[in-house]
Amino acid sequence: MQRALKQHGRYPYSAITARRDYRWPGRKRLAVYLGFNIEHFDFGAGLGAALGPKRPEPDVLNYAWRDYGNRVGVWRCLQLFDELKLPAAAIINTALYDYAPEIIEACVKRGDELVGHGHTNSERQSDLSESDEKKLLEECKRRIEKQSKQNISGWLSPWISESPVTPDLLAETGYRYTLNWCHDDQPVKFATRSGKPLWSIPYPQELNDIPMIVARQMDGRDFADMIVDNFDEMLRQSREQPLAMGIALHPYLVGQPYRLRHLRRALKHLAGARKHACWTTPGRICEFAENLG
Question: Are 99 and 73 in contact (CB under 8 A)?
Answer without folding.
Answer: no
